[in-house]
Amino acid sequence: MANLALRLPENVAGDFFVDSTCIDCDACRQIAPKTFSDAGDTSIVQRQPADDEGTKRALMALVACPTASIGTIEHHDARIGIDAFPELIAENVYFCGFTAESSFGAWSYLIVRPEAEGGNVLIDSPRFATQLIKRIDALGGARKMFLTHKDDVADHDRFAAKYDCERIMHEDDGAARRGIETVLRGGEPVQLDRDLIAIPVPGHTRGHVVLLYRNKFLFTGDHLAWSPNRNSLIAFRSACWYSWAEQTKSMQKLLHYEFEWVLPGHGRIHHDSAANMHAELERCIDWMKTV
């Protein structure tokens, strides 16, 4: 829980607050945008929740915060926020919440599938929190764990021990030394099962890989996201740790696939028609070539 003595002065007066331990991961601003906003290099409370739904979203942000930097003065039932995760995004795809500080608050996802279709899939690692584990158990656990890149592995080893799940990661991001069960190699796409395609997209890191599910949901790690400020798909030039030229080139691979959802580790989720997503991706690539 956040420390009231460290409450940031930029917070509006009232119950919810953010303290100075905030790492500006953006999770709270995505989960409860009516309550939290950006104050440069930190999040703050811009407006106190005005109703039960607003309070629920703020409590979800509190639970998801990787550094426990969100607090309240009044007593609230934390189960309201805890029980909201995993949160359904669409169809059988969920946002896990409970982000991890070691992954800088990156988002992770859960695909819930019957055993006949290969079982549930975790995409990147959330925090290994008892409350989340109980909820994932209730949804059927996890048979696979797809790790997009080395930044967002968090508590992958604890999830692997808990669920005896098959972890999948590219060798160029150190998969072998992490004891990963299925190590991807090279630059060609890999059909993991009927509905899952792993597509190597080096750039942000050398071994970055995205996951396409049912030609509809694209889990992009730190490769591609939606920017509400630019109102477009973007890549993160300032957070490209390996090669911007390679990331620009590998982005073009995605033009060969159809998808309607972009679900990133950082940045905003976006949904549109496959045709509009293709057009947005072309615009993103054109922009990447100029910066």
List keywords for this structure.
globular, Metallo-beta-lactamase, Chain A, 21% helix, alpha+beta, Alpha-Beta Plaits, 291 residues, 2 domains, six-stranded mixed beta sheet, 19 strands
What topology emerges from the helices and strands here?
Blueprint: E1 16-18, H1 27-31, E2 36-38, E3 43-45, H2 52-64, E4 70-72, H3 79-82, E5 87-90, E6 93-95, E7 109-111, E8 121-123, H4 130-138, E9 144-146, H5 156-163, E10 166-170, E11 182-184, E12 190-193, E13 196-200, E14 209-213, E15 217-221, E16 225-227, E17 232-234, H6 244-251, E18 261-264, E19 270-271, H7 274-288
Parallel strand pairs: 8-9, 9-10, 10-11, 15-18
Antiparallel strand pairs: 1-4, 2-3, 5-6, 6-7, 7-8, 12-13, 13-14, 14-15, 16-17, 18-19
- Within CATH, the superfamily of the largest domain carries the name Ribonuclease Z/Hydroxyacylglutathione hydrolase-like
The fraction of residues assigned to DSSP E strands is 15-25%
CATH class of the largest domain: Alpha Beta
Q: Overall mean pLDDT score?
A: 97
Question: Could you give the distance between the termini?
Answer: 41 Å
The number of distinct helices, counting runs of at least 4 residues, comes to: 7
Structural class: alpha+beta
| Rough outline | globular
CATH architecture of the largest domain: 4-Layer Sandwich
User: Topology as H/E string?
Assistant: EHEEHEHEEEEHEHEEEEEEEEHEEH
Task: Give the C-alpha Rg.
Answer: 19 Å
CATH topology name of the largest domain, in short, is: Metallo-beta-lactamase, Chain A
Give a quick account of the main beta sheet: strands, pairing sense, barrel closure.
Answer: 7 strands, mixed
Classify the helix fraction into a percent range.
10-25%
Strand order across the largest sheet: 5-6-7-8-9-10-11
Q: How many domains?
A: 2
Uncertain segments of ≥5 residues (pLDDT<50)? none
How many strand units?
Answer: 19
